[in-house]
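Quality-control log, excerpt.
Job 1 of 2 completed; input and output follow.
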Amino acid sequence: MTVRRTAGRARMLDGAGSVGAQDLASYEDRRLSIFFKRCRLAATHRQDVQLMSMSIGRGCFCALALLTGPAVLAAQRPAPLTAGVVRVCADPDNMPFSNQAGEGFENKLAELVAREWHAKLEYAWWPVRRGFFNRGLRGRYCDMAMTAPSKLDMVAATTPFFRSAYVIVYRKDSGLNITSLNDSSLKHLRIGVNLLNADAENTPPAMALSAHGVVGTLVGFGTFYSDSVRPNDIIDAVVDKTIDLAIVWGPLAGYFAKHSKTPLVLTPIEFDTLTNTPFAFDISMGVRKSDVALRDSLQKLLDSHFDEVQGILTEFGVPLLSIPPADSTQRHSSRTPGSRVTVPAGR
């Protein structure tokens, strides 16, 4: 069954299209890197870079065909770490994280690093999907990523500078009062979830809800963005009542809820006990594993500019949870983990 909003924006999952429950105890280490960042298969309309998706077996990668001069070309070629230059891998169309206009919070973090190091900021525009860290960082197209799962073993990560979670999102005037996946009313509501084009795994809510018996009422939203498929579609569907609620990665939900004209309620989910699925994750900055000195320099910057970094995240509406005590960088969040947040209508 298909729900036709605009081309490809949403689809209803029936039994045959549901995602089976799986043991995700080690999900964070293995696959989190593609939970909250999505590959954009459609070519960008900007003239400086054309993104072409090429399929290889079960995986795929994005090649960069450059259409401008030597300065941009140099930033997109593999190169050694260079003094006075901050090279960042970033997605060209992935708000609120990053875009080529420099409007995302990762862009602001990169600008902070470049400013404090008195360095030139260069981007390697690379749609985020499987292989982003392996090919982007290890392939030396860039030297750092502004956000990376703290336990991702293919990077040298700073200690976490924030922790966020998937959130349940619904209209404040909906009359709903849902705080976990154990709520039986979910079986009777239209629920929006983001879907990955993966053979076996998907986003935490898509996988966990099927184990709770919530299948036929799920509405899937694409993660390969184009002119007709946008990251805000899932929040817009809550606002216009196409769906009753959505379960969305916190930074994405918080940003678009903040800019919504309709007040929305966001409730973080940190863990699903039925499937042992983590829904909250620590986020760090990441560099190549061999660049320990660079990682340590980033750590010093994060420590000395903690308030400014947190201010950037807050400005973008990122739901912030307290980092677990086991991490030495635990800070006191202004928001209690699991607490409900009502986001007022945007101006």
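Job 2 of 2 completed; input and output follow.
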Amino acid sequence: MHTPIKSDPINPETLQTLRKRRRLTQQQLADRIRCRKDTVSRWERGESGNVRSHLREPLARALGVSWDDLTRPMSGDPAPRDPGTTRLNERVSSSTKNNLDLVCQRFDVERSQVLDMAPLLFWLLAETSLASRQRQLDKFEEAFDQAEQTASSQLSHLEVGLKVIDSDGDPLVCEYDSLEKRDVFGRLLPATYADLPGPFVTWLREFCIQLPKERRPALADFGPGEVSYSLPDAALCELTGLEEGHDAIKWIQSGDIDLEECCRKRREHDEPTYKAWLSDRAAEVMRLARMELDQLLGLGGDDDGEID
């Protein structure tokens, strides 16, 4: 059996794979072995392969392996599945993937940690949104009762009573039905309101007002259940090193440029080289988008209208 000598370097890919299997962030691993996050980051990028002797045993113990394992490439055997875990067979848009990566980078968390919290966060937002709508209905009903009492007392000789339309098409009846069925996105509301922002988007916009303007996500509603959003430009600019208004920002938000690739390029190259690559990438995406639009409009020529 091979015994590593003192100068054997740590294997970057092995370290990163084992850390992620343990579902640890770089900061969490650094805290466990009492070193800086930047040190772990340099190990994983291959910038520093020498691990000080007093850190080797704690590092191996934190990852559940021997130091010898950390100096060698991982075997080709599939990783054992952690008890109580499963793989989701779901597809998301490229823009959602970029948003997920932005959240992970900004808050120093793993994708799995965000996904673990997603059901709880949606539950809280959905229930709070429904409760807000119910409170508004309760206020309306209270105001209606007061108006009916006022009308009855002041016009008692006419026996006036306020009448509420009770039919399937009445907006209030539809709202009551929507709330009873926990219709968060408002799919059960009348089709005549399809051009208006849905109840969930409306509530989210009110909820986001408490955030500083530069930290508010942009929200759009394209019909029942079709909620579109983009995280703040300022956070994206901070991560990518771009100035606001750069052409690449909108293409990253749309998912046409991969955020993870941008971050990798920025780590691997100096700023001028990285920004030149990103500007070229944005220009290429723009060119392809124009070609696609021309083809849809029937304006594409036979010369260079084909996309490789």
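Post-run check on job 2. The longest helix spans residues 111-154.
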